[in-house]
Amino acid sequence: MFTLWSLVEASLLFLNAVCVLSEERFLSKYGWGMSSQVQGFGEPTSTKAQILLLVRSIRTVAKIPLIFLNIIAIIFKLLLG
Predict the structure, then answer these.
(1) By the 8 A CB rule, do 36 and 48 touch?
(2) What residue stretch is flagged as signal peptide (predicted)?
(3) Model confidence over 25-52: pLDDT tens digits?
(4) Whole-structure pTM over 0.90, yes or no?
């Protein structure tokens, strides 16, 4: 059954997956590494560059809050099953 908790849990798992992605080992194999983002001044950014920037910013900003959210989710799962 689709509930609000399953939506929260799915988004938490997605954020965990984004934070765990290794740019050097995984993303650069498919051309999504740091070296693929070469752009001149004033040029519009591509969709690929915007997604890479989003992944980097999520990894930077969400690391510490994700630790606490994971602890809360684990405790919630242990108590309520």
Answers:
(1) yes
(2) 1-22
(3) 777 776 766 655 556 666 677 787 788 8
(4) no
Q: Of 4, 3, 17, 24, which Cα lies nearest the Cα of 66? A: 17
- Coil, strand or helix: which one is 38? coil
Distances (CA, A) of 31 to 10, 27, 73: 27, 7, 34
Buried-exposed string 8-43: b where 16+ CB fall within 10 A, e elsewhere: eeeeeeebeeebeeeeeeebeeeebeeeeeeeeeee
pLDDT-wise least confident of 22-26, 53-57, 59-63: 22-26
**For residues 36 and 45, what is the distance between their CA atoms, to the nearest angstrom?**
12
